[in-house]
Amino acid sequence: MVQKIAVEGFDAFVEAVEPFKASGKPVFVLFSGSKTSGGVSWCPDCVTAEPVVKGAVDKAAPEDAVFIYVGVGGRDFWKDPNCVFRTDARTKLKSVPTLMKYGTAQRLEEEQCAKADMVEMLFEDA
């Protein structure tokens, strides 16, 4: 069964992914705009993509996979060109939502994350 983890912020992301780097398990990460007090992301594309990605995790991800949902912070934090999610070599994000197979060049960005066939293909190629 896919192990699912949800974290908020860059340090929590690094802490969550670290134990799996040498495990050989496929690690998938969805970076999304953080949720407001109402429980909904400030990012409309993220709101659209989240149910598609989570459905594909259950349908297409390998049994031994790890899925990490990462809130990248509020809109002002994310929009800063020096945002750590944009500048750190481990992430190099250009947009949210971004779904990646960690440690590879495989990634889907923005509206691609809302296309079930593309998301499932990313998981199936693991």
Automatic annotation (TrEMBL):
Name the record gives this protein: Thioredoxin domain-containing protein 17
Pfam family membership, one: TXD17-like_Trx
Statement: the UniProt record of this protein carries the keyword Transit peptide: no
Localization: Cytoplasm
Sorted UniProt keywords: Cytoplasm, Disulfide bond, Redox-active center
Residue span, Thioredoxin domain: 7-125
Organism for this UniProt entry: Penaeus vannamei (Whiteleg shrimp)
Molecular function via GO: protein-disulfide reductase [NAD(P)H] activity
Lineage: Eukaryota, Metazoa, Ecdysozoa, Arthropoda, Crustacea
